[in-house]
């Protein structure tokens, strides 16, 4: 059986719920979650262990992956590690559910550069670098490696979390001959989270994606679109949450043929609307 299917099955058995990779509000991988109580990383640690806490995420998403508007179920698994040295590591894997094929992986190294906290307010600023590497050569899926740098900042104020993120990705040449090339992708976005009750949280995130240096016949050299992502999070067990989300894109004027040649199935909303359900557990 494919490794990705085993990884997914283990993930579901290990945990039956999802929430933030960072306790002050999940901004990792561009996602904003509703605010949590003051983060444990503001509490002094003795530094006796390299690992501070772990977060394991599983997400199933039904999304379009090509110009024929065919839907594909994708499984996203992530493993995040927080260290007592104000640094974190995120390992992300994307796979096809039906075929059991690995689609791509992503490794992120981040630094909590600034954190200030008072009784009811927390402000955080993180910097990170990431490498995205494709593992499949199939229509609708990118064969272009990406190197990214970015920052994430958030302000937790009582029951609310306000977040902002910016990222620049630089792409390598595709390894598939009929795939279109893009030089850079810029992402700028923000979000708001709300604690409705002890067990229910809601968040809304809006991101603007701008593709620069598109090299494809009958296509503009640049294009942009918005992605709107509401999400509801339910606490089902201690440290275990269930997430229900929707991604709604708007303003993407590229033709279906160009979208297929660009093959950015990993970009939120690039091909169209998608729904997802996920779980996570924090150790």
Report on this structure.
This protein has 283 residues and is mostly beta strands. The protein has one domain: monomeric porin ompg (Porin, Beta Barrel), CATH 2.40.160. Helices cover 7% and strands 53% of the residues. It contains two helices and twelve strands. It has a twelve-stranded antiparallel beta barrel. Strand 2 and strand 3 form a beta hairpin. The radius of gyration is 18 Å and the shape is globular.
SSE blueprint:
Blueprint: H1 3-14, E1 53-64, E2 71-82, E3 87-96, E4 102-117, E5 121-134, E6 146-157, E7 160-171, E8 184-195, E9 200-212, E10 222-237, E11 240-250, H2 256-262, E12 274-282
Antiparallel strand pairs: 1-2, 1-12, 2-3, 3-4, 4-5, 5-6, 6-7, 7-8, 8-9, 9-10, 10-11, 11-12
Question: Outline of this structure?
Answer:
The protein is 7% helix and 53% strand. The protein is mainly beta.
Which residues form runs of ≥5 with pLDDT under 50?
A: 1-48
Secondary-structure arrangement, i.e. CATH architecture: Beta Barrel
The amount of beta strand, in percent, is over 45%
Order of helices and strands: HEEEEEEEEEEEHE
Question: Helical content, roughly?
Answer: under 10%
Per DSSP, the total helix count is 2
CATH topology: Porin
Global structural class = mainly beta
Q: What characterizes the major β-sheet?
A: 12 strands, antiparallel, barrel
- Radius of gyration over alpha carbons? 18 Å
**CATH hierarchy class name:** Mainly Beta
CATH superfamily (homologous) name: monomeric porin ompg
Number of strands: 12
Average pLDDT level: 81
Shape: globular
* Total of domains: 1
Order of neighbouring strands in the sheet with most strands: 1-2-3-4-5-6-7-8-9-10-11-12
Q: How widely separated are the two ends?
A: 28 Å
